[in-house]
Amino acid sequence: MTQENNIIEHSFERVHRRRKLIQHVIFIIFRLAALINCAGLFLVVSFIALKGYKAITWEFLTQPPIDSMTKGGILPCIIGTLCLGIGSIIVALPVGVASAIYLSEYARPGRLLKLIRLGISNLAGVPSVVFGLFGLAFFVIYLKMGESILAGVLTLASLTLPVIIGSTEEALKSVPDTYREASLALGATRWQTIYRVVLPAALPRTLTGAILGLSRAAGETAPIMFTAAVFFTPHLPASIFDKIMAMPYHIYVLATAGTDIEATRPLQYGTSLLLVAMVLGMNLVAIIWRSVLRKRMK
Amino acid sequence: MTNARQQTDKSVRFIFFVVALASTLILFMIMIFLFTEGMPIFKKVSVHQFIFGKYWYPTSSPPDFGIFALIAASISVTLVSAVISIPLGVMTAVYLAELAHKRTAEILKPIIELLAALPSVVIGFFGMVVVAPFLQNTFGIPTGLNLLNAALMLSFMSVPTICSLSEDAIYSVPIALKEGSLALGATHLETLIRVILPASISGISTAVILGMSRAIGETMVVLMVAGGAAMVPSSLFDPVRPMTSSIAAEMAEAPFRGDHYYALFATGIVLFLFTLLFNIIADRISHKYRQTGEASL
Lengths: 298, 297
Prior knowledge:
The structure holds two protein chains of two kinds. Chain A has two domains: 1-52; 58-297, MetI-like (MetI-like fold, Orthogonal Bundle), CATH 1.10.3720. Chain A is built from eleven helices and two strands. Chain A has helices at residues 2-52, 58-62, 75-106, 111-125, 128-142, 149-173, 177-185, 190-219, 222-225, 247-256, 265-297; strands at 65-66, 71-72. In chain A, strand 1 (65-66) and strand 2 (71-72) form a beta hairpin. In chain A, helix 4 (111-125) packs across helix 6, helix 5 (128-142) packs across helix 6 and helix 6 (149-173) crosses helix 8 (190-219). Chain A starts with a helix and ends with a helix. Chain B is mostly helical. Chain B has helices spanning 2-20, 22-38, 47-52, 68-99, 102-117, 120-139, 147-171, 175-183, 188-199, 201-217, 220-225, 243-250, 259-288, and strands at 56-57, 64-65. In chain B, strands 1-2 form a two-stranded antiparallel ribbon. In chain B, strand 1 (56-57) and strand 2 form a beta hairpin. Chain B is globular. The termini of chain B are far apart. At the A-B interface, helix 1, helix 3, helix 4, helix 5 and helix 6 of A face helix 1, helix 2, helix 4, helix 5 and helix 6 of B.
């Protein structure tokens, strides 16, 4: 009897050990998958940094390109990218925040809400080059803005709108309902509650969303190709109806269609590094700020 | 006094409602303008000829406007990238939601977010200067700018989408299900495969579809590394010209409101319909099969 028991126990033990072993192997594969992602980011960033840091000099940051792009700096591109990024946030932030307020504070479930939600989720999925086509057809041609900062800003704003709405909604949701109830109980109207209580409490997280939107707009290329960006302009922009140079477009043009692709390699690496540093820097600020806010909430 | 306040409240509410319609309005305008600028090409070629036509020679005379090769390129690049990005994304999500220590996950998640934030033009540039020569030397092929390179770089871009949405789905599986399975003697892995993944499959499918939608709409990466030859690919190492890169590369040269210009907008319509379809399917899945507690399993 005990012998039988032993045999059963023994085989059970063996099966159990095999199951554990399989689990062990597969979990290692899962870990590897996560590692590959990190390695990918590390590889791209470190490669660009190693190749690009030599190009980044004072002259690079403060001079316009000279000698058909092979020398000089990228000042006009930096200014162009800042104009487009900041401009698109100035347009998209109020619209996005107001949309989010409606969705999270006012809207009641129903067909209309479904329609609005469908619009936002599908807008988020529209390819960037289609935004470019839209910007070209609507802002540049139909509204006669021409290829200009304004047309580029409005195109990029349409593209960042869903990002802003999403993050603002999350910010509003993170405000406890007791805040709202307390304010309403004191006799405030819904708008007074939103304006005086909910918005101030949600503001920091809304701003992290705005930073993410800004970084997204700054890194996009396809939407500005037909609406705002040019290969070269000797002047810095003077009005919102000027065409401009922008860093992402500059990288693309130098790397694929420049007059001398090899001679401009250092400039390509330098511009890439600066763009990556800007975009990832903004993201990092937003991520860290958000986690600080989360901890404070607890 | 009260009346005035309530009046303000009502008008404010109305204003917010109108502003909230902006996204939907923009989406409609995108459709309207794509169609008004794209439809004139169908006076010259039929829809069937346009979509199934094998030759894309928009600048020769007489021009050929058939985008079958471009569609085939977009689909093949997306599928190959999905083969890489789906396992990678889902496995990373499982690791983050189930296996990683809380501390590790807190560091890893921002890294995935940063990966998503990398500008596409930089990824394309990386593909040109690093991956292309590498592929060329390793496989001894004439050019490293090809389907495989584009798919590799694209999976870079869709992994973060797939990963973070899948992770949400896995994370939201009720803990009681997991505990029940473990209590019956299943190992962690068995619980994962038999209980947790089936319970979160709708969220994961949504994630996969949105990731693929992002890949098919991505422009700069394929423009820079896909090689640009408008032919139906027959191997992984063939250069291809997806719809997005065709639009981006040719729009600047196309004469304003000429046939080529119309054809590019029509290509935009096809691309837009593809992504719209992806998004609607994802939306349907996430609504219809949403896991709401243990009862619906």
